Each structure stands twice: as C-alpha cells, then as structure tokens.
Amino acid sequence: MRDRRAPLSVFVLFVAYLALMAWGASLAMHWLAGDQAPQPSDAMMQLLTINAAILAWRLVMRAWFTGRAYGWWQAFLSVPRMLVGNFIALMAARKAMASYVVALRGRRPQWDKTRHRFPAEVEP
Predict the structure, then answer these.
(1) 117 lies in a domain?
(2) Of 24, 43, 92, 99, whose CB neighbour count within 10 A is largest?
(3) Are residues 49 and 83 in the same domain?
(4) Domain for residue 77, yes or no?
(5) Is the residue at 122 inside a domain?
(6) How confident is the model at residue 96 (pLDDT cuts 50, 70, 90)?
(7) Are residues 62 and 78 in contact, defined by beta-carbon separation less than 8 angstroms?
(8) Distance between CA atoms of 92 and 70, rounded to whole angstroms?
(9) Are the C-beta atoms of 30 and 36 separated by less than 8 Å?
(10) What's the CA gap between 111 and 69, in Å, rounded?
(11) How much is the pLDDT for 111?
(12) Would the CA dihedral through 7, 9, 10, 14 be positive or negative?
C-alpha cells in the first residue's frame, strides 16, 4: 500500500492548490462586487486553525533542522523550497500519468534518460 500513497497524495495536493486558488478568486470577486464573503462555520474555522498549526509546525521543524545542518540562510530558503518541491511532485505525477496512459494504449513507454557530463579528472 505504500506505493499507492504517492498518487493519492499528489491528487490531494492538486485539489488543495486548486481550492486555494478558487478561494482567493472568490474573495477577490466578493471584494470587487462590494459585498461580504460568507463566513466559514465554527467547525470549519477550528479545522482550518488545526490544519494551519500543523503546517506551521512542519515548516518550523523543516527550517530548524535545515538551519542546524546548513545555516540560517538555507533554513529561510527551506520554506519556499517546499512549494517548489510540491510543484515538481505535481509535474512528475502528470508526466507519470501520461506515460501510464501511453502504456495502456499498447505503446511501449519511452525511458527518459538523463544525460550526464562528468568533469575531467583533476590531478593532484
């Protein structure tokens, strides 16, 4: 079941980013229209608060341990790197699904080979 976790988590990540963008667009439209956006229920606010606290804890721990190993500047950069990592995960999942669909249609999947260039050996 561990192998099945990644596609589900990427799908949830995609839906979460989509919901975040839709919420921002909704707030902007309400603001442009000059009316009040509907307020979330108390239960929803509690759930959002707990979720935000867990996310903050995760970001603080990531920054703390990165800072201990690589310094304060890398600790600061660990937060935006999480967003970049999420984007890379989304794009990799999209490519993997496209390759899977190609395989389902009977065509042989093509292996993406990374080209490596090695520097010349340095003599002491």
Answers:
(1) no
(2) 99
(3) yes
(4) yes
(5) no
(6) confident
(7) yes
(8) 27
(9) yes
(10) 35
(11) 78
(12) positive
